[in-house]
Amino acid sequence: MTHPMLNVQTTLKPKANECIFAYYKKWIKGETLHISKEHYGCGGAGRWMCGVETRAKEDFLTFLVDGEGLKASKELMEKWIIKRKPYDSIHKNIFIDHLKIVSGII
Q1: SS3 breakdown of the chain: % helix, strand, coil, rounded to 5?
Q2: Of 5, 25, 47, 104, which has the most beta carbons under 10 Å away?
Q3: Are strands 94-96 and 32-35 parallel, antiparallel or unpaired?
Q4: Euclidean distance between CA atoms 50 and 88, whole angstroms
Q5: What is the pLDDT of residues 65-79, one digit of tens each?
Q6: C-alpha to C-alpha distance for 43 and 52, rounded to whole angstroms
Q7: Buried b / exposed e across 41-63, counting CB within 10 Å, b at 16+?
Q8: pTM for this one?
Q9: Burial class (CB in 10 A: 0-12, 13-18, 19+), 64
Q10: In whole angstroms, what is the distance from residue 87 CA to residue 102 CA?
Q11: All structural domains of the chain with their residue ranges
């Protein structure tokens, strides 16, 4: 699918439960990742970019602390989460790729 305003060939949708940063090398090569409420990859991207809750709060904290190692304790992780609100997108689709200047957009 080609996005009409950006003239980008959208070739990638993240696989279920796969971190969107797994696509980083593809972004650098010029491929575009298409994120939406239907295709967001991991639960973190679903929550922070699309407003989709994929786990109970306690399970999410356990994953972020014990699985990802983002904070030293669940208490610290919970405080961090409370202070930071998810992205409130006004768009249904988010396209991620390498930074480029697109005439008329930037």
Answers
A1: 35, 15, 50
A2: 47
A3: antiparallel
A4: 8
A5: 999 999 999 999 999
A6: 8
A7: bbbbbbbbbbeeebeeeeebbeb
A8: 0.73
A9: buried
A10: 23
A11: 2-96
